[in-house]
Design a protein that fits this description.
Strand order of the largest sheet: 2-9-8-7-6-3-4-5
Number of helices: 13
Shape: globular
Strand content: 15-25%
CATH superfamily of the largest domain: Type I PLP-dependent aspartate aminotransferase-like (Major domain)
CATH class of the largest domain: Alpha Beta
Radius of gyration: 21 Å
CATH architecture of the largest domain: 3-Layer(aba) Sandwich
Bound molecules: pyridoxal-5'-phosphate
Largest sheet: 8 strands, mixed
Mean pLDDT: 96
Length: 384
């Protein structure tokens, strides 16, 4: 965050949405309406689980991705990050095993380590989480007499991998969850930001055994500043999480819930997401083109069908060694080992295309390509 604040730095690091594209007239209209008609409600405490009208809006938002939910199973949270925190707080005692895709969203790993979970990564490939490896890890743990508390995964356009779990693997994962009574935490903040292909069913919509807890967020489709997310959970789990949320913050901001409701009730949210898709598609394409022009032939990278991130790998290069040099050249990325709890990912980096315009993406990738080439030359000169 401090790097992105320096205007000379082209930051391909943070996963920041393009909030400058939010229409001013819509912002003003919604706030005016709240001020005129719902001022007292906006300024008061609200129910811990969130307003019923917003739960119904969320059912509508999820229907846009083909998932049907009962609004009674929806709980509003203060962002998706709190949703991860609340579920972890509910389930994890120190030393409990959490399975997490590798690489995994760094914010989730921070939460897991706060509650002293023992994180075991499951590898990913171009089709997302490798389900065969999940089964092998579950077998090994069973032989040791241990059971993971849950599996954490981002099936759509993962952060940081940019990969999407194939339909076949989704079906298999849900089957494994049912057969082995494995709780799956499906984190889906990017699902509606798809730039090509057909939407795939959420794990929640495929699950018939009550083993999926779904986490959603308005951060990427409306704004992270409003800190609004949600959880969909079976009733028994839902009640426990409500207790946890009471202890954390009593309720999520009613003012912000009313803002989200205003946007969804007016129907404008769909147009806004369409606009975002246009912006991000162009930035993604620019980044992919720049990578093929500027990165050395040894490098590989993912081709995300949505979301914010490209995951690039340069075999033999420790991206931690590159970072200081890249910042000297006024370009930033996130080193790959930030997304592993076990020291993995050292030869990878996460590049975000969501926040920076096309011209700066091109220039940033050009500078990064030059830093990588210099580093490769240095390694060669040292015989490494
Ligand atoms: C996969 C994933 N989950 C959750 C979050 C948390 O976002 P928020 O708390 O803003 O909803 C993020 C943010 O980058 C994310 O990438």
């Amino acid at each position: 965050m401090s790097l992105t604040a320096r205007p000379e730095v082209i930051s391909l690091a943070g996963g920041l949405p393009a909030t400058d594209s939010f229409p001013q007239d819509v912002f003003e209209r919604i706030n005016q309406e709240i001020s005129d008609t719902q001022r007292a409600l906006a300024l008061q405490y609200g129910p811990t689980e969130g307003f019923d009208f917003l739960k119904e809006d969320i059912a509508l938002v999820m229907a846009a991705e083909g998932t049907s939910v009962d609004p009674a199973h929806v709980m509003i949270t203060t962002g998706g990050q709190q949703a991860i925190d609340l579920v972890t707080k509910t389930f994890i005692d120190a030393g409990d095993i959490v399975l997490a895709e590798g690489p995994a969203y760094a914010g989730a790993l921070t939460t897991f380590s706060t509650y002293e979970a023992d994180v075991r990564h499951i590898a990913m490939d171009a089709n997302g989480l490798v389900v065969e490896e999940l089964e092998a890890v579950l077998d090994r743990l069973e032989a040791e007499g241990r059971r993971p508390k849950f599996l954490y995964t981002v099936p759509n356009f993962s952060n940081p991998g940019g990969t999407t779990l194939s339909l076949e693997r989704r079906r298999r994962l849900v089957r494994i969850a049912a057969e082995r009574d494995l709780l799956v935490l499906e984190d889906n903040p990017y699902g509606l930001l798809r730039y090509e292909g057909e939407p795939l069913p959420t794990l929640l919509s495929l699950d018939t055994s009550g083993n999926v807890v779904y986490l959603g967020s308005f951060s990427k489709i409306i704004s992270p500043g409003i800190r609004s997310g949600w959880i969909v959970a079976p009733q028994a789990i839902y009640q426990k999480i409500v207790f946890g949320k009471q202890a954390t913050d009593l309720c999520s901001s009613p003012l912000n819930q009313l803002f989200v409701h205003g946007l969804i009730a007016s129907g404008v949210w769909l147009e806004y997401i369409e606009r975002l898709r246009g912006i991000y598609t162009s930035r993604r394409d620019t980044m992919l083109e720049a990578l093929s022009e500027e990165f050395p032939s040894e490098a590989t990278w993912t081709r995300p069908a949505g979301g914010f991130f490209v995951w690039a790998t340069i075999p033999g290069i420790h991206t931690g060694d590159l970072l200081a040099k890249a910042i000297d050249e006024n370009v930033a990325f996130v080193r790959g080992d930030a997304f592993y709890q076990d020291g993995g990912g050292t030869d990878s980096m996460r590049l975000s295309f969501s926040f920076v315009n096309e011209e700066r993406i091109k220039e940033g990738v050009r500078r990064l390509g030059a830093v990588i080439s210099d580093q490769m030359e240095l390694y060669r000169a040292l015989g490494l």
